[in-house]
Amino acid sequence: MTSTDDALYGLDALPYGVFDPGQGPRVGVRFGPGVVDLAALSAAAHSPLVELFDQPSLDAFLAAGRTVWSQARSKVQEWLSTTPSEHGHRLADVDLHQPFTVADYVDFYSSRVHAENLSQIFRPGQPPLQQNWLSLPVGYHGRAGTIVPSGTPVVRPNGQRAGAGAGPSEFGPTRKLDLEVELGFVVGRGSTLGTPVPGGDAREHIFGVVLVDDWSARDIQAFEYVPLGPMLGKSFATSIGHWVLPIEALDAARIPPPPREQALHPYLTGWNDMGLDIDFEVRLNGHLISAPRYRDVYWTPEQQLAHLTISGASLRSGDLFASGTVSSIGNPGSLIELTLDGRRQLALPDGRQRTYLEDGDEVVITATAPGPGVARIGLGEVRGTIYPSPIEQEDN
Ligand SMILES: O=C(O)/C=C/C(=O)CC(=O)CC(=O)O
Ligand SMILES: [Ca+2]
Ligand SMILES: [Mg+2]
Known about the structure:
Keywords: Calcium, Hydrolase, Magnesium, Metal-binding, Phenylalanine catabolism, Tyrosine catabolism. Its cofactor is Ca(2+); Mg(2+). By secondary structure, the protein is an alpha+beta fold. The chain is 17% helix and 27% strand. It has two domains: 6-96, Fumarylacetoacetase, N-terminal domain (SH3 type barrels); 105-160 and 170-387, Alpha-Beta Complex (Fumarylacetoacetate hydrolase, domain 2), CATH 3.90.850.10. Strands 6, 7, 8, 13, 14, 16, 17 and 22 form an eight-stranded mixed beta sheet that branches. Strands 4-3-2-1-5 form a five-stranded antiparallel beta sheet. Bound molecules: the ligand O=C(O)/C=C/C(=O)CC(=O)CC(=O)O, calcium ion (CA) and magnesium ion.
């Protein structure tokens, strides 16, 4: 089963998105094989929710806060269980858009397997975890303006990479274009500058989740990142799914996170942390290449949110913070891990081989989670095809 299966999108899932049936973008909810127009549905029910839904994006709804989000979900479930086929459009008949305006973007680094794998590749001979890793959720501020909806072409970026020996750098299209499987948390309710958000209040702020592919140019990244961190190697495109799944839909997927291995400062503990039993699948040109599990991710979204704001930094509606690459042992969430930085070829069932991504390659990430009943629920997909660099000549 892939998470595009309609059965994954019953009343227990109901992810929100933005679709265009031909007359402009509208807010909708994915339901089975289609998308239901929420302005039309709420207008027919004479619900005041129509004001939040009669919009070209989810922005107004995101800003409305937890009480409204929960009421809306119950109402939509009720309406769809009584009049399931009204105000629906087949997915094939609509265009899907970026669901919300992304405010700030933070990318964490919360999978221990991924952190240790990358350490080995980027910093051989050094300890597998930096001293900070078990003490705080390491992350960096990313580039919100280049977050693009699923399906947007991913143009091979240009940049500098290390030259031979200690020689000058080389410039040209990246030779190490990679994908990163991530889960994104979408902030609905903002916060006040100077006032940290306690992790126990995370649910007042986190509206839901979206799939993320944090495209990465590993050669550009490796040359530029010391000492300030990722810059151009990750800022050229970050793809997000079209569907934002409300956090309540994941209640049945909640599990304890992996055991803490070090005592934490009080601001990072003291509530019932949200581990999540989400299974991802990554396909390259249609072939399944990895199936990472979110349950192995060490730092939780509550801890990430508490850490992000402990300095007094404020949240804005539309902020996106991503888990970091989700890697499990034997099922990593990136090609740098799968191919040991290109030293090992990945054999695809069609007889071709890959190390890093080639022009024309298509990557599709999907995910599912347990629902409240026997059926699983879907988190949609995030898809991207690699387009050639606009610069043909390398300078050396
Ligand atoms: O270990 C490093 O130097 C680099 C790590 C990454 O590239 C990963 C990153 O973007 C954060 C993540 O996705 O986990
Ligand atoms: Ca990342
Ligand atoms: Mg990025």
